[in-house]
Amino acid sequence: MSDREKIHRGSGNVFEDVGVAHPERVMARAQVMSRVADVIRERGLTQKEASSLLGIPQSKVSCLMNGKLSMFSLDHLFELLNALGRDVEIIIKPKTKEEKFATTHVLLATQV
């Protein structure tokens, strides 16, 4: 390694590391989007089948599967999970003194 190369330890949230506004919210949306895509893959759905089931154009299913976050709000992602037969549970609780942000994690059940 040369003198000019530096290694920086990430924060655990790539969106924070690259300076995205509200990185905790973007990370939550990315995690939920990833879960929607996982359910589609686990069920072996084609994009056309997923399009029909979700009530969105196939082009938006493609965006979903390719992680295009700007195309989907968190609310819309929750609706897509519901359409895939998944329940969405939101827990609101006081943050601890150690937590930097109130919205820190999205816990995703992995059962199909």
How many separate domains? Answer: 1
Shape: globular
Count all strands and give the number.
Answer: 0
Gross CATH architecture: Orthogonal Bundle
Q: Briefly note the structural class of the backbone.
A: mainly alpha
- The assembly state of the depicted protein chains is single chain
CATH structural class: Mainly Alpha
The Rg value, from CA coordinates, equals 17 Å
State the end-to-end distance. 45 Å
**Strand fraction band?**
under 5%
Largest sheet: none
Q: pLDDT below 50 for ≥5 consecutive residues: which ranges? A: none
Mean pLDDT: 86
The H/E string reads: HHHHH
Q: What's the CATH topology name? A: 434 Repressor (Amino-terminal Domain)
CATH superfamily: lambda repressor-like DNA-binding domains
Helix % is 40-55%
Count the helices. How many?
5
